[in-house]
Specification:
The complex is a heterodimer of chains A (283) and B (220). By secondary structure, chain A is mainly alpha-helical. In chain A, helix 1 packs antiparallel against helix 2 and helix 3 packs across helix 8. In chain A, 59% of the residues lie in helices and 6% in strands. With 220 residues, chain B is α+β, with helices and mostly antiparallel strands. Chain B has one domain: Nuclear Transport Factor 2, Chain: A. Helices cover 54% and strands 15% of the residues of chain B. Chain B has 8 helices and 5 strands; from the N terminus they run ααααααβββββαα. In chain B, strands 1-2-3-4-5 form a 5-stranded antiparallel sheet. Classes of the chains: A mainly alpha (283), B alpha+beta (220). Chains A and B meet through helix 2, helix 3, strand 2, helix 8 and helix 9 of A and helix 1, helix 5, helix 6, strand 2 and strand 3 of B. Chain A: Keywords: Lipoprotein, Signal. Chain A: This is VacJ family lipoprotein. Chain A: It holds the Pfam family MlaA.
Chain lengths: 283, 220
């Protein structure tokens, strides 16, 4: 698979870049996405790679291997990634989570038969999803522009900078045997893709513009992950009819808000008069 | 590639659940109980129904229509997806937008439900006071060897009991995720342009799924 990628890479990148130049001057409405012209071209390229190489491979993989075997493969790959998850949790100061990840790795590598079984998960040590991009975000590094990378797909500039470390940490480069290493990499890609067969159809059907859909999904999800779900979710009311005098029900709700729920009323300024905004903090 | 796939997977699962939400329940049920009952009921039906598992679109849409839709506030969801341009829409346009958006969501997420196999759903404790009128109910899809995927339902209590107005999958709101693409359509062709693209998309989906057009416009 790597060879396929490598041999065609130069030509395709050139094609993508020229497409980017052609569309690069298009007006970009989204401030998070100044590179939209280039990004759209690269997004199209990645979709082609998926269609021609990765998706067919995933379909074969799913057809050939029974479900329990695929679960085992997912467990082994997940286990290989846990030390890196642990390190990132620790770097973010989340000591309990980090120690949990290390326990997972220890338990699953031994009792879990080299990671084949997720015994730690059964024992109540959940798998976490952390990477260096999230750690940098946690440290206050801004995300920068949205950028679609060849093969790797959507990133922010921050996450793209973190990508080499994330990539190397998740690949067993300590294995000297090149064929084995490539097999692990190939299996990772194909396995991951196989878990998404079906989801791609939903994306196809649900999105008016797949590029925009994926971009906004990615950005919102990254922000959610960096904040570990503690970001604020705001629901505005755009309905004139129900936008009646601010206060009332919202204030009552605020008075009774508990724990994770918090409602506040901000509708007093002339600009937003008559508009009710309920804020709700997630988690 | 990882990340795209990551979120796609979340998206699929969400879809399962997004669709799998509420069922026939009385209006005075607590919101977390409501979500749990409906999810459990719908998934039990899907698990037992070979036709749905084989991808029978019509059958799964009928199921969602009967069990899930009554618990969603689609007008509110559409308003949130459209954003501030909603104010510019006439009452008639708002109704057409709501119908078209509902059809699109039901179509796509009902299909996702046919992919449901053996993921386990866990219901996380929800904290709210009896007087609260807006509540977030949290659930998780648990799968071996992967981080659980959160599916949260935002519900608000109205005259007709608790209604879902947003579904948040793996941290992403399925509703507001539409806002930029809707904005794009509105910038291009106004509110009517957006209605047209939604209705066209629904027609294409209906044809693709071999269903009559009359069916496509149907909704609760």
């Amino acid at each position: 698979m790597r060879n396929v990628f490598r041999s065609s890479r130069a030509g395709l990148v050139a094609a993508a870049l020229s497409a980017a130049l052609a569309t690069g001057c298009a007006t970009t409405a989204n401030p998070d996405d100044p590179l939209e012209g280039y990004n759209r071209a690269m997004f199209g390229f990645n979709e082609q790679v998926d269609k021609v190489v990765i998706k067919p491979a995933a379909q074969v993989y799913e057809a050939v291997l029974p479900h329990p075997v695929r679960t085992g493969v997912g467990n082994v790959l997940g286990n290989l990634g846990d030390p890196w998850v642990a390190l990132n949790n620790l770097l973010q100061g989340k000591v309990a989570e980090g120690m949990g990840d290390l326990m997972r790795f220890a338990l699953n590598s031994t009792w879990g038969l080299l990671g084949l079984l997720d015994v730690a998960g059964e024992a109540g040590l959940p798998k976490h999803d952390e990477d260096l991009g999230q750690t940098l975000g946690r440290w206050g590094v801004g995300e920068g522009a949205y950028i679609v990378l060849p093969f790797f797909g959507p990133r922010t500039v921050r996450d793209a900078v973190a990508l080499p470390a994330d990539f190397i940490a998740n690949e067993p480069f300590s294995i000297d045997h090149v064929a084995t290493r490539n097999t692990v990499l190939g299996t990772r890609v194909v396995h991951l893709r196989s878990t998404l067969l079906g989801a791609d159809r939903t994306l196809e059907e649900a999105a008016l513009d797949r590029y925009v859909f994926v971009r906004d999904f990615y950005l919102e999800q990254r922000r959610y992950k960096v904040s570990d779900g503690r970001q604020e979710r705001v629901y505005e009311d755009f309905d004139e009819q129900s936008a009646a005098p601010p206060g009332g029900d919202v204030d009552t709700a605020a008075a009774s808000a508990v724990g994770n729920l918090e409602h506040a009323d901000i509708g007093a300024s002339p600009a937003t008069a008559g508009r009710r905004v309920a804020r709700q903090s997630v988690q | 590639m990882n990340k795209i796939l990551d979120f796609l997977r979340a998206f699929l699962l969400c879809a399962l659940l997004g669709a799998a939400l509420p069922a026939t329940a009385s209006a005075d049920k607590a919101p977390d109980v409501l979500v749990r009952d409906v999810t459990t009921e719908v998934l039990e039906i899907v698990r037992a129904d070979k036709a749905i598992q084989a991808g029978d679109t019509q059958r799964v849409i009928a199921l969602v229509d009967a069990k899930v839709l009554p618990h969603f506030d689609f007008r509110r969801m559409t308003m949130l997806a459209v954003g501030r341009d909603w104010r510019q829409a006439s009452a008639e346009q708002q109704t057409r937008l709501t119908d078209a958006f509902r059809t699109l969501l039901v179509r796509t997420y009902s299909n996702a439900l046919t992919q449901y196999r053996d993921q386990r759903i866990e219901f996380r404790p929800s904290r709210f006071a009896p007087a609260d009128t807006r509540v977030q109910v949290r659930t998780e899809v648990v799968q071996a060897g992967a981080q659980p995927i959160g599916i949260d339902y935002m519900l608000e209590k109205g005259e007709q009991g608790w209604k879902v107005f947003d579904v948040i999958v793996a941290g992403v709101s399925l509703v507001t995720n539409y806002r930029s693409s809707f904005g794009q359509e509105i910038a291009r062709g106004g509110i009517d342009g957006l209605i047209r693209s939604l209705e066209e998309r629904n027609r294409a989906l209906a044809e693709q799924q071999g269903m009559s057009q009359g069916d496509a416009g149907r909704g609760a």
